[in-house]
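check this one:
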Amino acid sequence: MATPARLQQFEAACRAHGIPVTVQRRRIFEALCDRTDHPTPEEVYAAVKDTLPGVSRTTVYRVLETLVRVGVLAKASSPGAVRRVDPRTSRHHHLVCQRCDRLVDLDDAAVPHRIRPPDLRGQGFTIADYSIYFAGLCAACQEKTAAARPPKRTVRRPARTTKRPKRTIPRARG
């Protein structure tokens, strides 16, 4: 359940952008507030379809885009991965599994949360946002990889004798 402060933040953001607080928007937002993962729009749809009879996937996608636009959700996806939403809008970084696309929040003091982006105005580019993704394999995929490897076999060869057996070549009769 969303905390009263989160709901107030949601309602204030909607009103500030002139967007009505509808039942669909509120339920979808509430469904995301308790999550610590980064669900896909399909996963959000699966979570709300029983509590919102008649809701369509299109509605869920549109509501998610609206909630990102007003700033109460964030987009979270790495290049080439499926689009996800992040209920956590404060600055943080992510770990992304290159095999299953799992996305995990990274809060590590070794990774600075504030990075001074380079000044690219001379190149005609203004940086609006940034995020850092560390790519690798999650623990579950590492286990699957290890389990899929065939065990190493030790090939036993017969011990060599010092004497080699003589080969007998049959003589041609003639």
